[in-house]
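Lab notebook, bench 4. Still working through the backlog of constructs that have no structural model yet. Next entry is a single chain of 88 residues. Request: give me the structure tokens for it.
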Amino acid sequence: MLRIGSKLAERDLDFEASRVFERCVHDFPQLFEAYYDLAFTDLALGRYSEALEVLANAPCASRQDEIAPTYLRGKIEAALGKNGAPAI
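Model written out:
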């Protein structure tokens, strides 16, 4: 399923890809990559709060799973107009 969703996303069929990734998250809730890919398509679709929620619910089985969402969170925050600088 991940491969199908990725192929759809490569063709800019983000809505269709998100549906595939949603199904993958539902069927395989332990699979980090499904959550990450779903969050990425949510970002592409402008569904920023949904993307952040998906990342927050992603299972982390390894150190890499814990680190990988940092990049995507930064992209989402940039899309929201947040620069990530701490308030003084």
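Notes after review: The two ends are 45 Å apart (CA to CA). The mean pLDDT is 90. Flag for follow-up if needed.
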